Amino acid sequence: MQTNSWVPFFPEQASTFAWQVDLLYFYLIAISVAFSIPIVLAIFYFALKYREKEKFATPDEIHGSIMLETVWSIIPFVISMTIFLGGAIVYFSQYRIPDDGMNVYVVGKQWMWKIQHETGHSEINELHVPVNRKIKLTMTTEDVLHDFSIPAFRTKTDVVPGRYTYLWFEATKPGRYQLFCAEYCGLNHSGMIGWVYVMEQRDFDAWLEGSVAGETPVEQGRDLFENKLGCASCHAGGPQQRGAPLEGLFGREVRLVGGQTVIADEEYIRNSILNPSSQIVEGYQPIMPTFKGQVTEEQLVALVAYVKSLSGADTSTQPTRAPAAQPAGGTGTQPAGTGPTTGAANR
Ligand code: CUA
Fold first, then answer.
1. Cα–Cα distance, 183 to 193 (Å, whole number)
2. Where would a tag sit more exposed on the chain, N or C end, judged by fewer CB atoms within 10 A?
3. 189 CB within 6 A, ligand 1
4. What is the pLDDT of residues 282-303, one digit of tens each?
5. Does residue 76 belong to any structural domain of this protein?
């Protein structure tokens, strides 16, 4: 944490990829300086050397130089390729989301961040995480575009209406780090800020125990599925079953009417609940009603967590209750077929 009173030139480096981002940045600055200074010096030098000494003088003709042209093509090529490679390495390390991260759900809303842990703990504008552990955020928004940004971790990702985006990090130092919304989202955009608390594992465990946990997302999702929304009436097994089974669905490839296939990821499950007729599973009728307008993004997150739990996916911090034969999810549009593969795939 920054303890001095003046504004730090750079935010602290507090994640595993912070140094990579800074290194790339300094490399770009170094290259810019290395070109700018000689160019400015050359401008002055040539202005003096070739200033007009006699009126209407004609310059000597210059013929090409293969050598010179080759050199000034190859050097910039090599430099731009190093920038590209450095950028690609940093990009992949940040935007390839690891499978073994601890899951946290984030829902943005004008003008606050709602955080939901898999343990059932929820927070507003605060995110508590253990140090040295991969954290995976699954994010969406109730209203407009926001952007989840933690400068000390050198990472940020847009939070987009109508879909899920992901961000991951592994914090390297316990401390308190500022969290910002980095996308103008209306009147109180500048107030949409918070703190990320990075704690030693034992402190984090103590924090979990010391604060009140509500229902876990999986429990909330099960309640919606079985009771409030009645999804189970079509998706549960037995003679009533008209919707596709959902056990083992998550992460699998699903065949749709028309022969297309899709991977059953978070986005697919969300879409199947809101726009059931857009992706009909092969072998099923388009009879599922839409739940658009009836479920909030937070409830959708819970439903998605529940459907994931039916595949044994997810739940890094708490064992899910055995889901037995309860199907999940929306209805008419889910994938048929099924060998329960386990889902950890595809996040
Ligand atoms: Cu949310 Cu700016």
1. 12
2. N
3. yes
4. 878 777 878 787 788 888 888 8
5. yes
